[in-house]
Amino acid sequence: MEREGALSQKTREKIKVKKPKQYKVIMHNDDYTSMQFVIEVLVRIFNKKLEEAEKIMLDVHKAGKGIAGIYSYDIAMTKVNTAMGWAKEEGFPFKLSVEEV
Predict the structure, then answer these.
(1) HEC-encoded secondary structure of 51-83
(2) CA 82/CA 92 separation, integer angstroms
(3) Dist. CA 38–CA 28, nearest whole Å
(4) For the segment 78-91, what is each residue's pLDDT rounded down to a tens digit?
């Protein structure tokens, strides 16, 4: 019996849990989506504080893109789909993409 216990202890030690891959959500600039809408998306969907949302919005405006956040794949895609759906409802061609970190 002791031998089985030692074997399963050894087996448990070999199992390593991998952290899920992380993905950054990137917002892209366009000439039509309002700065206020981008800020609202960052606050409501990406849970950013107003000051941080304004900084990210300015990055998007000046550099052409900005990082809205870094998440696991499922969360990143859910946030992207929610934001792009809302943008479509509002008539904005707002674009987001996801890249592995």
Answers:
(1) HHHHHHHHHHHHHCEEEEEEEEHHHHHHHHHHH
(2) 13
(3) 10
(4) 999 999 999 999 99
